[in-house]
Design a protein that fits this description.
- The protein is an alpha/beta fold and 162 residues long.
- It is 25% helix and 23% strand.
- It is built from 4 helices and 6 strands.
- A 6-stranded mixed β-sheet has the order 2-1-3-4-6-5.
- The longest helix is centred in the middle third of the chain and has 12 residues.
- The two termini are 15 Å apart.
């Protein structure tokens, strides 16, 4: 399996999936520290930078697109700007990237606040965007305390299948 990773951060997907034999084709990250970490641990994987520029990225045949777009505009601890915020808008750019590369699967992650922002309209727009692009999907809120970590950290995971 090959995958592309957007809003890659420190690249948790590669850490999880490399032992399975999956190969990362590209990452997309703009923050300096994660970029330095990515280039250190995965020097042969290109970092295409800004997700807003995905239309200009080289073509790749990938099986999965994975990303956890920034949560600040959805978080109850943030400004709650929703999809209209600079970071929240990257959620829709994830869909553009999905359309560009057309993988069989996608995995998207965010904070539970995405479910309630704008009375659910933002999350509905994201799910509608998946459906419009031909993806069926399922989503769940998972809490890391039930996966071996000693803290409560809920996240919404959406898995799509073309």
């Amino acid at each position: 399996m090959t995958f592309g990773s957007v809003c890659s951060g420190i690249e948790a997907a590669s850490v999880a999936w490399e032992p399975l034999g999956w190969r990362c084709s590209f990452v997309s990250e703009v923050e300096p520290f994660p970029c330095a970490l990515l280039s250190h641990y995965w020097p042969s994987v290109p970092n295409y930078g800004d997700l807003n520029e995905c239309a200009q990225w080289p073509a790749h045949a990938i099986d999965v697109l994975v990303g956890g777009t920034p949560c600040q505009d959805f978080s109850v601890a943030g400004q709650r700007a929703g999809l209209g915020g600079a970071r929240g808008g990257l959620t829709m750019r994830f869909l553009d990237c999905l359309e560009r590369f057309a993988p069989a699967f996608c995995v998207w992650e965010n904070v539970p606040g995405v479910l309630s922002i704008d009375a659910g309209a933002a999350f509905g727009a994201f799910l509608g965007g998946l459906a419009k692009r031909g993806y069926g999907f399922a989503y769940r809120v998972l809490d890391c305390q039930y996966f071996g970590l000693a803290q409560r950290r809920e996240r919404v995971f959406v898995v799509g299948c073309a």
